[in-house]
User: What shape does this take?
Amino acid sequence: MKHLSEEELIEQYYSRGAAGFKRHIEACPECAEAYAALQTDLDEMKFAAPPVRDPAYGERVWQSIAPSLPVYEARKWSWMGIGQWRGLSYAAFALLILGAFFAGRLWEHRQPWTTAKSSPPQAQEHVAPPQQRIVVVVLSDHLDRSERLLVELKHADAGSEEMVSPLRDEARSLLVANRICQQNAAKIDDPALATALDRLDHLLDGLANQPGGVNSATITRLQEEMNADGLLFQVRVLRSRIPEDQAAKAVRSKEGEI
Amino acid sequence: MGKNDHETIKAVLAGDKEAYGALVMRHSHSLFRVAFRITGNEFDAEDVVQEAFLRGYQKLESFESRSKFGTWIYRIAVRCALDRIGGNKADDSSRVAEEPDPEQEEVRVADEAAGPDRLLLSGEIGALRDLALRSLTATERAAFVLRHMEDCTGEEIGAALGIPPNAAKQAVFRAVKKLRSRLAPLRAMR
Assistant: This one.
């Protein structure tokens, strides 16, 4: 007689045992023993019950997400109409930047005398005005990094210098990118993005530029502010709103505008 | 219930944003239950519920009226929970074992000196089971939760996890085998 495998026994346990299986078990002591052991193991696998939510839980969930949801008709019009143009304009911006970058590189290669570094002194009078460095910031990456920082801040042990120091460094790095994104949000007239970025700016500034360094009181205050604003959730909402097309996520700024 | 959901969805798509609130309130508890079982964490579960309803709203136009909204949003929540535990894998491993042994793949509890009596008395058996559950891969854990606790079929698990039904069954088999292996010491206490 062919014995049942453990996988077959597991399947029978969850499907409550077919008639053919029961006959086999009655005729085969080994399979009956194995099945009894499996049954006992699985019957005893009881895990922590989910905590009970009060009846108002659904209402609270709704209140927490409602402000982030656009009205559908407007959303449809916005995403299919203006949103599409906005996406295309982002893509065009990104392409323009890339084109300008490669054109600049090509031009530099062909006319090495125009660069300050390689030019002989007598040629420097022909040097074109210094080019403004172009900084490209990808909004989705910025929001990803910001989310990670906010999660770390949320769980940060205020008394731990080891934990606080990397947070401050990351905040300083993010602050510059955030200001570029703020400028872009203002240009494209996206109030939800602009508001979230303003709050993020305030928090990053507090973390990065606290006079006298970041101490436990600062961390606690920032944690409270972050929770009160629902900033982490706002950042998650914005991140989920961004289309996958990477080209549509790029914003730019020239160095002089930062 | 299903018909009401469909009418509500039509209202939302016609511009009545507030109508979505009724769907959220109707399905929040069931989403929280499955999210908690998969993530094993109350706060993560609450985040998962919010994220699922958010994603659901954004994809509402793609919802096919022949299916049930409850099933559809439940699947979204399972995916969100799966993403969450997948992303927290490093945290999980640190909770399960301080120095995990990849060869033995055994769960190491914090107090190995604790005797069976103490374990029984302090309710640590339950904690040991939860640790064993957390030591599974994200897919195995979700598949096991859906099969063992939510009573889903292989087809339903596959649809929720975005994998073929046979792969879902295999994930359940692997989960049960690993859990039995890791919880074998408990048999001696029976």
Observations:
- The longest helix of chain B spans residues 19-39.
